[in-house]
Amino acid sequence: MSDLVATERVFPRPQTSAVNGDIRIDWTKALWLMFHGVAGCVGVFLYPQIDGLVVFIALMAITICAGHSVGMHRLLIHRSFRTHRWLEYVLVWLGTLVGMAGPSGMIRAHDLRDWHQRQTACPPHPSHGAGFWRDAWWQLCCVYRLHAPPRFVIESEVAEDPVYRWMDRTWMLQQIPLAALLYLLGGWAWVLWGCSLRVFVSLSGHWMVGHFAHRCGQQDWVVAGLPVQGYNLPGLGLITFGENWHGNHHAFPHSARLGIAPGQRDPGFVFINCLERLGLVWDVQGPDDQPRRGGLTRMDAPTSSASRAPFSAPTSGA
Ligand SMILES: [Zn+2]
Ligand SMILES: [Zn+2]
Description:
Layout: E1 10-11, E2 21-25, H1 27-46, H2 50-77, E3 82-83, H3 85-96, H4 103-117, H5 124-127, H6 132-141, E4 142-146, E5 151-152, H7 156-159, H8 162-169, H9 175-213, E6 219-223, H10 237-240, H11 246-251, H12 267-277, E7 281-282, E8 296-303
Antiparallel strand pairs: 1-5, 2-4, 3-7, 6-8
Helix pairs in contact: 1-9, 2-3, 2-4, 2-9, 2-12, 6-9
Bound molecules: zinc ion (2 copies).
């Protein structure tokens, strides 16, 4: 029998192994990234104009904050607050516009990585264990395939929802209506800055935050017994919209609030707060609204740079 733990959507089978797998190139992923990287660079060199930069920054903020961080991560994946179905669709659609995957693809990528990181041994791909360039290649252009994968089940409210199924089938094509609108308003300059450069920077930035947030940074919390820990990356709150507080996220994955200590800026949570005041979201979960993870320990003197720090003794479960 397998001694692997199950998570909310991932269930090991008796034959499942979390460590026997291959890293293979994913041509769709690699060509999609390269296409937007080249087109984004062409945009910057052919149209070095301030309005292009403004469009890029504005669309980055909307798609990463409201879409990726709040819609995909805190709402669809973790259900850390509740909202109207129509608003959930809007937020998740904005997250699809980031250009990483559709709703089910995002849940799968997040939850399988999370499942791997909760086992006693985690291979270097899902743990971000390789060095900078190799990890970039693995995460941005390759896929990790287990020989005997676990069963992966997405809840029927998402898996069978016609709107989410449509977003899953068409997630790449979702750039087209936005590109058409940008073309009408600002020509090719706005298309290249607002779609291609944005997608390339979003994908690269997402990987980079994941890379450092599992290797080094400030460690406020330890989950004892796990091979992979999350680290906070102070100073990046405003440009990651709060996703830099990844050590807090490992400690309190159910929490809508990622920046939990004074001074930890979390624009995504500010946005959720605004929606709550407008009566559009409710049941917003904080760090203490659910039982603590077993083995979670507060570091008395947070380390400012860590490399797989020694684990504290496990506390009692729950
Ligand atoms: Zn998460
Ligand atoms: Zn993590």
